[in-house]
Design brief:
Strand order of the largest sheet: 11-10-9-6-4-5-3-12
Number of domains: 1
Number of strands: 12
Shape: globular
Low-confidence stretches: 209-215, 222-228, 250-261
CATH topology: Cytidine Deaminase, domain 2
CATH superfamily: Cytidine Deaminase, domain 2
Distance between the termini: 23 Å
Strand content: 15-25%
Bound molecules: zinc ion
Largest sheet: 8 strands, mixed
Oligomer: single chain
Structural class: alpha+beta
Length: 298
């Protein structure tokens, strides 16, 4: 066992920073909510710099815990990239096991949490396609969800599960980043429930407002159409407006402001500090992952 690891885990349990969560009468550990997850600006910029729009990358966001004004906070202190050994790196991430093990040991021996992350690529042959790719890629895949349930860390009190992070930059030519946290028995496995309306509305509103198409009644009607998919929206645009949308996506980082006040499970940033608040977990959101975990370890 790692030096000081057990004592550290004991302290985290005693102080309520992590807590026990039972599945089929077996003990697991999770980070207690509510907890704030912070990625400082320099780490955000490092992730943006390293992002590749054609290949999945990944590794660990090493996070240190502290309590600030009574609030539980995890702050990323280091980004560790681990080589992707997947035979299909354009659409899957599989880390080099031995390198990952070393990174986990290093994180725990400095009393920090190794939060696994991976990216989704958004490369396409046009700006319009990239908007669509971005919109499609900012969610976890089924394999992501299964994997999130299969990476716990052994402690003498049970297996510790941590949330994982999904990172997506909007296309090859843009400046901005999406970070979402899922799993860890604290967050849902996907962002569907939180994402869709919020994202489409912000995306459309921001793009449309910025480009002032809203003067055109037809496009305004399209924009306000509830439940209309982005693909459908794009199809209906006139060629001139298509080009404008293409130009407009360069302004997507503006979206980060649309999320202020509601950064729950995911957030966007144009290069500044990013904050995600994970509320106290509960309800049906955990059922699916409890099932996956029980299948793996029950
Ligand atoms: Zn994925």
């Amino acid at each position: 066992m790692r030096k000081g690891f057990s004592e550290w885990i004991d302290t985290l349990i005693r102080t309520g920073i992590i807590e026990r969560y039972d599945i089929s009468e077996k003990a697991y550990l999770r980070v207690s909510g509510p907890v704030r997850f912070v990625i400082p600006g320099d780490k955000i910029r490092e992730l943006m710099r390293q992002y590749e729009s054609q290949t999945e990358k990944g590794g660990f966001l090493v996070a240190k815990h502290c309590t600030k004004n009574g609030q539980s906070v995890l702050t990323v202190t280091e980004v560790v990239f681990i080589e992707n050994i997947s035979p299909n790196p354009q659409d899957s991430y599989q880390f080099h096991m031995q390198h990952a093990k070393v990174a986990v040991e290093n994180a725990f021996s400095s009393q920090q949490f190794p939060v696994i992350f991976h990216t989704h690529p958004t490369k396409a042959n046009s700006f319009l396609q990239e908007i669509k790719e971005y919109s499609d890629q900012i969610n976890t895949s089924e394999p992501d969800q299964v994997a999130a349930a299969s990476n716990p860390y052994l402690t003498r009190h049970g297996r510790l599960l941590l949330p994982e992070a999904l990172i997506v930059c909007p296309g090859s030519a843009m400046n901005g980043i999406f970070v979402g946290l899922y799993g860890g028995l604290i967050a849902p496995l996907d962002f569907k429930k939180q994402k869709h309306k919020l994202l489409y509305n912000s995306l459309l509103n921001t793009t449309l407002k910025t480009l002032s198409f809203i003067n055109n009644p037809k496009d305004a009607a399209i924009a306000s159409g509830i439940g209309l998919s982005l693909a459908t929206f794009l199809k209906q645009l006139s060629p001139v407006n298509k080009r404008r949308v293409g130009e407009g996506i360069q302004l997507l980082p503006l979206l980060s402001y649309a999320y202020e006040g509601d950064p729950k499970y995911f957030a966007m940033s144009a290069g500044k500090k990013l904050t995600i608040d994970l509320p106290k977990p509960g309800g049906k959101d955990l059922d699916k992952q409890a099932f996956f975990i029980d299948n793996n370890f029950g």
